[in-house]
Structure formats: C-alpha cells, structure tokens
C-alpha cells in the first residue's frame, strides 16, 4: 500500500466507509499518519467497537511486518497453583466427535459455525488465544443481559477469530429485567477467575472447543499479579438475577441457562475498572462488563442489595437453601460424562460434579410444573418439558425407579396448592383418612364426601368413576368450588362414616399399616357393595326413596340426602313439577347450594342394588359372657406366680368388639373395657401356672397386661377362642383353628425388603411359629431348625435365621414383644427326650449329634481308644446339660473340651434317648435281621427298616453310621476297628444290657455295608474319605525368620491343628531368641507377586493358609512394629466402627462400578462390625437417600493385606490390598481391590479396625493353648462384649496384658 495515499483507500479496503469522518476530524488524512495508531487513540476518536478496531489495526500493518505467534512453554499443572498465576487450561486440538451435533445458526455478517453439543458443560469453541470459560455445576436463577469474559492465552497483539459459543437448543424466550422494557443487550461479560482459590488446581477443558487447524500453544505463567497486563475477551451472555441465583444464558430466547451462581455463596460485588465489575465467591471470581457506566453501577447496586445481610455459605450443607429430596449422578444422553443431579422441592438442578454443587456453581435448573417423566428403557427415562427432552441414564434399574419417583414427586409438589387442603383439614375429622385413619389425607372422593389418604385413593380409583370420583386436595384446584368445600366442612369424615361405616366388624377395620389387599377388600365392601352402610328405613321402596329425596333437597340436611342417594334414590327422578323437573333444579330453586353441589357430583353415580333385595344384615359380632377371675392390670411382664387371693371375681362380656368387665352381673357400668382393636396379643398360660388352673393374658396397645383365670377348662377355651376371633383379621383366620399358646400382631421385615416394616399376624404352636404376613399366604417357621436365633439392637429386634431367609421381628411395644421373645426362645430350645424334640440342623440331625461328630472328626479320629475310654463324669454331665438347655449356643473347642468327654456325651445322649434311635416298635426287628445269613436279603431287610424310620431318626442314623465308618478307617491309629465299635455302640443305640452280641452284630452290619444300605454314591464317599485322611497328615514347609534368605530358613512340620502362635513359638525356640518387653512377634503371610503381607491371627490355623498359597508366597516370622500403636489406638476407641475417605481402585472391571481401571478414585467408606460399605460421596447421616451405598461387602468374607503393587502407581505409599471371597458353594467368587490412605497413621487405624472386627468373627479358629503375650494379636480387647466389659478390659490391659489376653481367649 502506498503510505502516502489518501485515507479513503484504507477505510474502503476494510469496508468502514462511515468512519472516514472520524479520521478526518482527528487530522489523519493519509495512511502514513495512521501507521502508529493504538486502541486507546481509536477509543478517543469514537471508534469503540472491538471488531472495527481489530480490522483497522490489522489493515495498517505492512505484509512483512506482521507479527508471528510466539511459542509458549508447555503448561504444567500442579495440585496447588500459586496465587499469582492465572489459570492455563490445556485445550485439546481435536474435536469431541462423540457429542451429538446441533445445527448451527446463521448470523448476519458472521460465517457459518460448526456443529456443537446441545447441552454440554464443556466450553464454547475458541481460538488459541481464548481461554476456557468457567464451567461449573450448581443450581440457578437471574435477569439482565451481560457478556462473559475470559483471559487470553496469547499476547494482546495476537488477533483471534471469535467463535460462536455453544448453546442449549431451546426456542422460547425468557422475560428480561431491563429498565426500558426492550431487548437491551448490555455488553457485560462474566469471567471466572481462579485467582482467589489458591487451593483449587486448574481444570483442563474438554475436547472439542478449538478448530483442528489452530492448536493451542500453552504459555508459562509469569511471576506477576494475575490482573497485571491481562486482556479479557468477553463472551456476550444474557444474564438474569433473582433473589437466589445469578444465571447467564446464550441469548434472551433461551430457557435453560449455561451456568448459575447461587447468591448465598456470593461474598463480594465491586467495580473493578471501566465498565467492569466482579462477583466473588469463596471459590470463584466472575468478571462482568456492561455497555455503560450507568448500567454497570445499576448491576453492582442490585447485586449488593440482593446479597447484603444474607448468611454466607462456603459449601453446600443440609442447612443450605437447597435441601435435596434426592441427589446423585445421572448420565445425560449426548454427554461423555455424568452430571450431578439434585431433585429439590419442585425443581431439578444439574451440576457438573458434586464439588460444584457444594460451592454453589451450577449449569441449569428445570421447573417441574411443566415436566413429565416417562420410562424408556431398563436404566433410562425421559424428563420431558415443552422446551426440551432430557434423556437420563441411571446406574441401575433400582436407582432409576428411585429417580423417577423423586421427579414425579417434584412434579406433584410443583402442581400442588395446599390452600384447599388446609381448609378441608379445618374440620378435625377430615385430618384423618376416612378408611384407614392415616393422618393428613390429601385426596377425596367428591361424590362420596370422604377424605382419604393416597394409598386408599388408589383403591378408590379401582372402583371406577361411576362409583368413586377421586380428586386431589392440592392439585385439582378447579373442581374445588366454595360450595364443595362447604359440603366437606359440614359433613366431615366422622359424620359421613356414621353412614358408610356404621357396621364395620373390628376384625375387618383398616389401619394405616394395612396391606393393599386388605384395603381393596375393605373399600370394595364399603362403597361398591355397601356392606357396612347404615340402611335407610325406606330402603327397598324405590318410590318412597325418590319422594323423600325430592322433599329433603329443599332443606339443609345434606347427610340425609347422601343416605338416600346411596340407598337407592334416583337423583334423576321426576319431581312432578314442570318448573323444577329434577331434584337438582329443585335444590337450586330453594337456595340450597350445598344440596345442589352434592347432587351434581352424583348424577352419574351407579349404586349396586342387585345383591341387596332386602336390607343387609351385618354378620353377628363375636359375643360371649361369663364370670372370670382377674388381677389388677400391669405395666410389666409377670415373673412370679399369682395366688388365688390376688384374683377378683368379675362379670365379663364380649359384645360389638368390646371386652368389658363388671363388679357383678347386676352392674350396668363396667369397671373397665378393652376394645378388640386395642388387643395386640393373647397368651395362653400353661395349666396351674397361677392360682387358677387355666389362665390367659391380654396385651393392649397402651402397654398394659391383663391376667384372667378360671377353673373351668371349657369356659377357658371358649373365652380364648372368642377373644382371638374378635381381633384377628379375616386374612389370618386360619390361625384360629390352631391350638396356639400365643397369638397376636407384630411388625417384621424379611430379606426381600429391609426398608419398610409390614404387619404380620403370628401364632406360636409348640416349636412352630405360624405367620400370615401382608400380601402372602400362611408360613411355618420351625424354630428348632433355625440356624440362628438372637435379639439385637438393645432388645428391639428378634432375628430368626433359617435356610435361605432371615426374618426380623420388631418390638413395636416392649411389653408384648418381651413375652414373644421369651416364648420363641423357649420353643426353639430342646423340648423333650425324643429325637424330634431336639434342636435340629437343616438336614434334620440333632445339633448335639452334629456338633459332637464334627468335633471328633476334627480332633479325635486318631485318638487311641476313642469311644471306648471314659471321660470325666462331671464334665460329661455338665456338657449334656448345656446341650439340653440350648444346643445351638454350645461351641466345642479344642483345648477347652476333651475328646473323651465329647465322645461320652454323644453315647450318653443315645442311651438316654426316649424310644431309642431305632424306635421301640422296630428295635426287635432290627436285631432279628442281624441273624439272617443271606447277605443280600439282610441288606434288603435293613433298607426296608431304614425307610420305616421317622425322618429325624433316619437322618440321624445315617450321620452316625457314616461317622463310625470314618473312625474305623483309622483303626491302625485309634485301635477302634469294626468289631470294637460295634461292641461299644450296639448296646448304646439299642439300649440293651450288652450281655450278648446281637446288638453289636446289627451295628457291625450297618457299618460294614454302609454304602449299600444307605445307598451312598461312590463319588461322594471317596471325596469324604480323602478329606478325612488329609486332615490327619502333617505338612512340612519352609518358614523364614525376619527376612527371606537361605540363612533364615526353617523347615517346620505343620500338623493340621497348628496355629500361628504355636508356629511362631517353635521357630523362636529353635533360634533361642529371647523376647523382650513390648516386642510383638507374629507369623506373616507374604506375597512377593502382589507385594503385600498380613499378620496371621494367633489362633488362625496355618495348614489351610499353606494350601491356599501360590508359588510366590511364603510364611515369615518377624516383629510387628506397628502393634503397639495399633493397640493404643484400639484401647482409646469405644465404638469399633470407622469411617472416612480413601482412594479406591479395582483390580479389573469386576465390581460393575464404571470406574476406569487405570486410576484411583476418592470414595467414602464406613466399616462396622458386619460390613464394609463404600459411597461415592461423604454420607449425610440424616439423609435417607444418600445412605444407599455403592457397594456393601460382609467383613467376614474380606482378607486385608498391607501394601499395594508399585506398578499400579498408587497416589501414596500407605495402602491396603483387600481380597473378597464369597462363601457361596454354587458360585464362589473372588475379587481384589486396593485402598490408599493419606498418612501412615490413618492406614494403621483402618487396618487395626479391620483386625479387631475380624478377630471377633473367627469363631471356629481356636488354639489348644492360651495365647503367648509375646505374639502380636489385636484381640486383646473383648470386642464382642458389652461397653462396660470393654472399658474394664482396656483399663486392665495397661496393668496386666496377660490377664486380659487370657480373659479374651474365652470370647467367640
């Protein structure tokens, strides 16, 4: 360009002809004079638009003088960025092709833009000179137009090409808060600055923000103030402000924002320069620029007024303005990452992650008053609004259901209006459901004039609109006219039920906890069939009913009109008056708007009259009367015998569901009364327990106990039958046909649904508990065959564990629950001396037989003279008595119990067994069979006799003969061959004097032909034999002392019973190592391949560990250096649980967590006595929804090791390796994952807690000797004892560690 040419050439070349006058007035006429123009000079000339300035300055440069981009040093991200360093986000040069495209919009004077995501937290497309704008996630609202700025990465001399920002593809426009009412687009630009958050590392942007041809060049952060020499490029945004949120949008037509800032988190609003102001929070700073000073000042003033005097938040907490009803991560279709989603009241909020939620920075919010939720797939659902469809994907089907319910509740909340409900509830009886009595019912049947709860309303809908027209008190606003509200206030549930529920038997009445089937049956009977209604005297006479209706609508008696309509009067009948042909017009003419309102809602109501040709006679209620002897009512259980003098004679009656007692049969006023609905339990005492021969106990809802007695057995049975029938519902009526000892109502949970309790009706008959639970048929629980029976949670839950199921019975009332617990525990114990009355295993073998056989198989197969040598009589008698009281609680331990004592206990049990093992009827046939010479006939006869035995006898005989067959296979060691065993057990099992060998010959035949008589498969037999043999052989292994090297090798013979403590003692004794005070030696399992190790518990058997070894594992005896610190930590704890954050990584994608296998992730863990639970976030204690763990592992199946493989690149060197092995035989499973702690002390605390809990679980691992104080073991404190016992043992530990360890050796 000729530098002396006229200026018009320049302005024409850049297409800015209208600006020529500005140059002329400034005295600039040639290009040479304009050569050194600066942006500030252009501002003074009145050329302020940035686009015009850039084009002018670019055209003034000579081709050879154009500046080249200056390469910047590679950006280095650090965990703690210096305060004076502006953020340097790295932008990927490639686009994110996985995001769904959004068609670009055409803008005048702008080139077409590339496709962008419809809803993405990622930044808009930028040039290398533009940075990533702040994109955080929290909740949102605000109003006014602004532009968002960002700090450039290149020098100010570089001229970038501004790309169109990404937008939400939504059409409808928003309402703007501009003073002139027009579309004022103030060039205010918000920018997020990290300069105030010194601990927050820079966030790398997502890919797809930069054109492929312009890769970004990172720049090293200069050591200067972050605001020095910074040029801000602003992005135009429409901004809205309300009392809670400052929100910014792509344009004023968008409905859903690109970002939100909670005003509760704003700490400062101030002007920062020409046309600019900043909004600061504790974690972010946003810079805005307006179009004028006046507009900037208005924004600052409004924002300061909005935030002045408000309570500031640094992080979101339960007390924050946004209290979530449900929260968690959801995947939004079209995005690569999950969004943290919060459902609160009538809105759904979207956040980038949970951290942004806590600091008050969000993406957008969705008003649920225009929303609708629809299921689409197994884990997917759509939230549909008029402006956009949000397609979410949950992590599981169960979580999807919870999300859908939460969002539907939010829609209901958005559409609800409590004004009508509050007015309806002003009538006291309307505040309780007319059908079940639930509080605060929010629905009504407007034609039946009853207010009902949500669960009953669902059953009303099932009747159809021709019978019940269900409407919401909160959402159906239009239907609630003033007249209809007055009808409900005038009648009320109590008055209406005097018609609808005049004859409800107590056994059929609903309660708030009634199941769905009971509600459906009751509501159908009540409204469709009119089973309980009060019949009008004119019922059955249609003409008289119609005449009575026409007369009654002229007065104000609305209840009488309701009675006439639902007893058959025709609301469309003819009145005989031409001016008022119908009852509706007649009521209107006589100024009775309430009557007209009731009739208008019943014009199409169908009253079922087909089944009622005569007035319905309700079934007669149970009634009985007579004299009983009664004691004073009590508030505690009866623990002592009541004498006859403590009883008083009373006249008792049972009528209309009320049990009353009078001073005599001549008195009209009762001394007291008990409604059948208040009775929760009826207990029948054993004969002659109290002064009168027959007594029974009644337990009431009010925690009172009533004791009645009589000497008349027949009268006693009738009273028990009548009282039970009065309060037991029809669904549990089969219980009344049982000869129960106790019957009543209890709350319970089972393994299928532990979230909510359900009401069950139970009856105890002998050792069987009969139950009728909600929505289920009758069940039988055989208490003597339970795997576990315990009382937990401070005597408030009774746990019954049977095969494949666990039942939790809850103590809703302490008095009757204590009686149930005592009765069930007694019934679950041994009830007599026959086999069928013993406590049994799942295979119908008495627990005493199973325990003794198992102990002898483990510890006594090689004991010389087993079953022939006598034990100590006192110990045998004591052991028999313990088994007789509760065989399930007896644990036989090596070292604590002697083999001969256990063998004699088993023999004494069979000798004293009533009717014997072979039964008194068939015992002689068994003996005579032994004399048959033909072996095949003998075996056939034995098989026939075996099949004739009762089920328990047959199972017990097979278990015993199987055991004796195994014992004789070790006759070379125990000297008990086939003949010797037959001599011992023949007289014992047949209960003979043993003078001849007939009984012995029968037992010898059974043992010798065991596989044929009992039809045992050879594969099972060989497997069992090999297992028994392998437990008797010793194993020689190499053990290392302190380190793995040849000079430290020790070859040790490991018997099957050797414990870790015994192995440690043997190795130390071989080397003559003296153990000093405060030294803890342990046996360690070390894996070289996995780079992990763990100390074995001192009672842990070594041989099973060796069998599970790989070639890269070995045993090591060394000091436990951290034991002292671990013991001190445990002694300072009262609660055995622990919780906190750890970094987690899985070995492979086996847990289904959706985590990448190459990094560690922060997770929140809670470890208690039963399980290890993992959460995605810090658990909020009082938030039910957040209590759901991501994973839950039983502690007893975990094995915890110290150390993590280095190739995994753990973030810290303080880590644990956890191995999970399931105990399911059909599908054994093994998983492995890794946990990292921040400090060594934290790792020790977690590991100590793991060991302390697991030591309490190792019930079967025992030692023949007491633990040596030289060995490191964490079970020095009785972790399963009471709190006082634990405190005592902690105090005693510092005085005498040996005494404490001896005390804890007796704990399970």
From TrEMBL:
Region (Disordered): 64-223
Biased composition, class Polar residues, residue ranges: 163-176
Keyword Nucleotide-binding set for record: no
Domain annotation PH: ranges: 234-308, 323-412, 621-728, 1135-1255
GO CC list: cytoplasm
Low complexity biased stretches: 144-162
Record's compositionally biased regions (Pro residues): 100-111
The keyword Cell membrane is assigned to this record: no
One of the GO BP terms on file: signal transduction
Segments forming domain Ras-associating: 1034-1122
Subcellular locations according to the entry: Cytoplasm
Domain Arf-GAP: start-end pairs: 418-543
Cleavable signal peptide: 1-22
InterPro entries on file: Arf-Rho-GAP_ANK-PH_domain, ARFGAP/RecO, ArfGAP_dom, ArfGAP_dom_sf, PH-like_dom_sf, PH_domain, RA_dom, Rho_GTPase_activation_prot
UniProt biased composition (Basic and acidic residues): 64-76
Name of the featured protein: ArfGAP with RhoGAP domain, ankyrin repeat and PH domain 1
Gene giving rise to this polypeptide: ARAP1
